[in-house]
Design brief:
single chain; 253 residues; mainly beta; Immunoglobulin-like; 2 domains; 5-stranded antiparallel β-sheet; 54% strand
Length: 253
């Protein structure tokens, strides 16, 4: 995984980070948030400029139909946004959003410059106001209703640093199997996983990207033990469903 440098330069409203690529080049990410003081439920613009060795990077490959995926997650893991910014063609991506409540947030940006490896950039935002963080508790049962659909999550193993088969099963409110899931961003479903302190980030896609349900399978590996929050995103009858789960990954015995 690409690593963010421990050194960053802070401007008045912009923040520059260096991401180390798998190649010899260094990729710099310059973040801007406007307004500089962010408040809850306020329209906020986030921009991200990508440079290589000080020059704008212009060409980016689409990954699952988008040149950049931005994930906004609150530090208590209660807020999740999956956004797709507009690209100005000159190395800058821009997206508008609102932060639902006060507190700290981490923004993850995934992008693939032409001729380079896929990159993961990170940025922290503080939203002004009284923080009311929620406790992150592991789910006792891995079944969730989201509107008229039921989602069940199963694992063949939940041991740290071991390959894990993760299966979402989708049924309707009557228990009938859903067999006509629609592609979301070119695949059967997207899954984003972060560790409790957000020092580990995983974005995984199905083993069979053309799967229609009721089962959608994923392979992943949890690099450290502890709690993780998982968001599965699926499209059905034109509607996007986001289902969250919290699990606890054990140390190998």
């Amino acid at each position: 995984m690409n690593q963010e440098s421990n050194h960053s330069t802070h401007g008045h409203e912009s923040h520059v980070h260096t991401v180390l690529s798998n190649s010899v080049e260094e990729i710099q990410t310059e973040w801007n948030v406007s307004p500089a003081t962010v408040k809850p439920k306020q329209d906020t613009e986030i921009s991200l400029s990508i440079k290589s060795n000080g020059k704008n990077m212009i060409s980016f490959s689409a990954v699952h139909e988008k040149q950049m995926h931005i994930l906004v997650i609150s530090h208590d893991l209660s807020i999740f946004q999956h956004l797709h910014p507009n690209y100005d063609g000159e190395g800058k991506f821009i997206v508008k959003t609102t932060f639902p409540k006060a507190g700290k947030y981490k923004i993850f940006a995934e992008f693939l410059p032409d001729g380079s490896a896929q990159q993961l950039a990170k940025y922290d935002v503080k939203v002004e106001g009284e923080e009311q963080d929620e406790t992150v508790n592991s789910d006792k049962e891995l079944k969730k209703h989201v509107d008229q659909l039921m989602f069940e999550l199963k694992f063949d193993d939940l041991t740290v640093k071991q390959p894990v088969l993760m299966t979402f099963t989708v049924t309707d409110s009557k228990g009938s199997k859903i067999t006509d899931l629609e592609p979301y961003l070119g695949t059967a479903g997207h899954v984003v996983i972060v560790s409790e302190k957000m020092d580990e980030f995983l974005h995984v896609h199905p083993k069979d990207e053309a799967a229609k349900g009721p089962d959608v399978e994923y392979m992943t590996t949890f690099p450290i033990s502890g709690k993780y929050k998982i968001w599965g995103q699926f499209k059905y009858l034109g509607k996007l469903y986001t289902v969250p789960f919290v699990i606890n990954v054990q140390v190998s015995k």
